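Sharing a chain and its predicted structure for anyone who wants a worked example. Both blocks are below, sequence first, tokens second.
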Amino acid sequence: MNGEPIDFFQEMRRGFGLILAHEGADSAAAARALADSAFDWFEDNIATQAEGQPALACTKGCPTCCALRVTATAPEIFLMAHYIRMVEATPQGAQLQLTRRIVLAEEATRGRSEQERLDSGRPCPMLIEEACVLHPVRTLACRGHAAFSEEQCRAAASGEEVDVSISAAHLTLRALVQSALQAALRDRGLPWGLYELNQGLALTLAEPELVDDWFAGTDGLAPAALDLDMAALGQAFDELRTIN
């Protein structure tokens, strides 16, 4: 990420807009391209932004935070659903029963608070043998949640009141990329909110045509939408447009 955060945001916003302009005729391809681009923006810049920070405690086999509620944009959900369908189309992948795991997890966690989810001990449905089977297409929220102390994370997950040291670089970069993607979707007149991941995936996997409807302006993911102040966020995006 070169220059000021606002310049980086504007560059990404334009980049996402170009994807929508060039691939808008193919809804599924455009959704995948948007999410892939968002992940590339994050991964290509995080090492530089996190330079000088302590080593992260987040490693394979540490699923402590994988009981938290995860939120995502529509393109991220559509890409993950596409990936799940490809996995389940193979004999070995079908045995994982990812769609069933997601539906059961969504039913069990719907309406629960963050702490209630942690207290339940129910892990993310994509977590198998303490490893994320969808790690290559994990959400920006997952990429942006990085901690320095496994001990602090485990204490917090068990209900203790502790301050968990989180990487500010990861949080900031996640927010910039996600906001730029949301702004570009809004510029195009598409639903641009955030959705609870499990419910969004369950809806998408049950209705393959949902992505086409979404690009036509019908938000089939609405039942999974977070209650956010969209008017204030939209105003902020409009104001950013006037900054050169």
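Comments welcome. The longest helix spans residues 27-49.
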